[in-house]
Amino acid sequence: MASEEESFAVLVHHRGSIKRKTRSGVKFTDKNPLYIVVNRTTSYDDLVRSVLMKLGLEGAKRIKKFFYRIPVTILHDTVKYDCLTIGSDEDLQVMFLCRRQFPEVRTPELLEGSNRNTTNVATAAGSSSMAAVASSSVPVYEPTAQLVASPSFAVDLNDGVRDEVGSFDVLPNALHGVPPVGVGDGELGDPDEDDVEPETIEDDSGDEVVAAGLALAGGGSSSGTQQYPPYFSSLDLDATTHEGALGHAVGFGARDAEGNAGLTEFQVGQQFQDKDEALLSVKTYSIRRGVQYKVVESDHRRYVGKCSEFGNGCTWLIRLSLRKRKGIWEVKRYNGPHTCLATSISSDHRSLDHSVISAFIMPMVRADASVRIKVLLNATAAHFGFRPTYRRVWMAKQKAVGLIYDDWDESYSEIPRWVLGVQLTMPGTVAVLRTSPVRVGGQVDESEAYFHRLFWTFPPCIEAFRHCKPLVSIDDTHLYGKYGGTLLIAIAQDGNSNILPVAFALVEGENAESWTFFLSHLRQHVTPQPGLLVISDRHNGIKSALEAPDEGWLPPSAYRAFCI
Question: Where does the record place the region Disordered (predicted)?
Answer without folding.
Answer: 179-204
